[in-house]
Amino acid sequence: MTWVQSMQKAIDFMEQHLLEDISMEEIAQAAHTSPFHFQRIFNLLTDTTVAEYLRRRRLTLAAQELRKGEQKVIDLAFQYGYETPESFSRAFRKQHGISPREARGYNGKMMAYNRLVIQVNLKGADPMEYEVVEKEAFQVVGVKEEFSCVNGENLKGIPQMWGKVNSNGTDQKLLKQNNGPVKGLLGICVDKTAVKENHIDYWIAAAHDGGDVEGLKSLEVPKAKWAIFGVHGAMPHAMQDTWKKIYSEWFPSSGYKNAGGPELEVYHDGNPDSENYYSEIWIPVK
């Protein structure tokens, strides 16, 4: 099964079970991947979270039913997963701009979110700079925080973590320890699904040859075959755009699959606000 087919199967699963209380584990299982990787790829490709997609689709279908004028608001609220008619009404108004009662028989404009169909660009019009190399295991030292992936909480927390590290001097402390095989500050994402569902550990670290460093934690990055992508441009947009191209263009056409394990963003010296700034993305592949 190809990566595109796997993603589409997960979307089809969500559509088939829109009126049920489905878990992220069940959705990811339909895609034959981990909850972390599914949520990450889904967000990269759609710019929204899985939970938001489900909410929008449910409220779109609820609006269609209300326009027919057949069901009671309270029945629809429970049918589409809301505990009270009031919470349903608030969510409905936020999406459509009118109340559920106003929507009954309404012929004006409403906000509809259609069923997703995965489309990828295989033309490769814009070249991607990458190499595939094998690296032995190496140690990093740094700081670590745990984040939930539910409702995109990790997407909010990680930038705040970088803000702390850059403002309290930890970034300079890490750079002084950077004598390992990878140069620069590292953002490392480690999937914790096996021990704590829907959670990741995120590290801001530096490759370090040597023993423990006081005040810093250590992690061994395992031996792997890495696809290393060059990223050119200002942060954070250049990094985000490259991640999106990797999953929408490179993986579907390259023949490689994500092998699991830590994924790295490598931030080299220079001005990250410059359009000439160079950084990298490292993904373990098979």
Automatic annotation (TrEMBL):
GO molecular function annotation: DNA-binding transcription factor activity; sequence-specific DNA binding
Domain HTH araC/xylS-type, residue spans: 8-106
A Pfam family hit: HTH_18
Domain of life: Bacteria
InterPro entries: AraC_E-bd (IPR010499), GyrI-like (IPR029442), Homeodomain-like_sf (IPR009057), HTH_AraC (IPR018060), HTH_AraC-typ_CS (IPR018062), MarA-like (IPR050959), Reg_factor_effector_dom_sf (IPR011256), Tscrpt_reg_AraC-type_HTH (IPR020449)
Annotated keywords: DNA-binding, Transcription, Transcription regulation
SUPFAM superfamilies for the chain: Homeodomain-like, Probable bacterial effector-binding domain
Protein name: Transcriptional regulator, AraC family
Organism of provenance: Halobacillus dabanensis
Phylogenetic lineage: Bacteria, Bacillati, Bacillota, Bacilli, Bacillales
